[in-house]
Amino acid sequence: MPFQAILFDCDGVLVDSEPITMRVLRDCLAESGWDMPLAECMARFVGVTVRSRTEQIEARTGQPLTDGWMDDFYARRNAALAAELQAVPGAVPAVQTLHARLDGRLACASGADRHKVEMQLRQVGLAPYFGPHVFSGHEMPHSKPAPDVYLAAAAALEVAPARCLVVEDTPTGVQAGVAAGAAVWGYCPPGADGAALRAAGALQLFDDMGALPALMAAATLQNQ
Question: Which residues on neighbouring strands pair with residue 206, listed in sequence order?
């Protein structure tokens, strides 16, 4: 294999959570005075933490972004995810195949909070394939687009970042993987902005998560 480990983002790569999370966030912001269409909310907040946009939120709502507000958002988000979350099509069989092929050298490295990431992996049946190798940007000195979460994941797997493949779906995440020194492939389902992923440094784009094992095998043949 040209890659010895795979480091997956979570939201939008393994689980189809972003429309759910963004809908709840849009509603919470609207109640605080910043009303916007869902598409605008997704454009502004997908791939980044809510707290990283504190200045924008406080300017638009005229209110401080408090711990209480965040706790309410998290509670409403988690309830919606528990009721509605599904895996990205093809993600479960792809992870199962690659876990066996790479002797378990998989990690999930997300910019989201650990509770959310672990809850989502459990809900779609992926938790056993990542075990302790789940990493949250909330627990790092810096979250994406900084490389910290991917460097931590590579170190835990004892694989050099240059021998890791990062799978991402946002420019912010791609930038983080590139900054870590890994190769980054962009998951780009229909309607996604592939040009933005390329501009951020994605080496390859693909639109079917279930095809990832075959793409990895093809990359192996090309490097022999």
Answer: 187
Element (H, E) at 129: helix 127-130
Sign of the C-alpha dihedral, residues 95, 96, 102, 105? positive
Which strands sit side by side in the sheet containing 106-110, from one edge to the other? 134-136, 106-110, 5-8, 164-168, 183-187, 204-206
pLDDT tens digits, 12-55:
999 999 899 999 999 999 999 999 999 999 989 987 889 889 99
Is 87 in contact with 124 (CB distance < 8 Å)? Answer: yes
- pTM strictly above 0.85: yes
DSSP state of 122: H
Token code pair at residue 112:
């989201």
Dmax (CA) for the chain in angstroms is: 59
Beta-bridged to residue 168, according to DSSP, are 186
CA pair distance 161, 151, nearest whole angstrom: 7
Cβ proximity of 90 and 208 under 8 Å: yes
Q: Pairing between strand 183-187 and 204-206? A: parallel
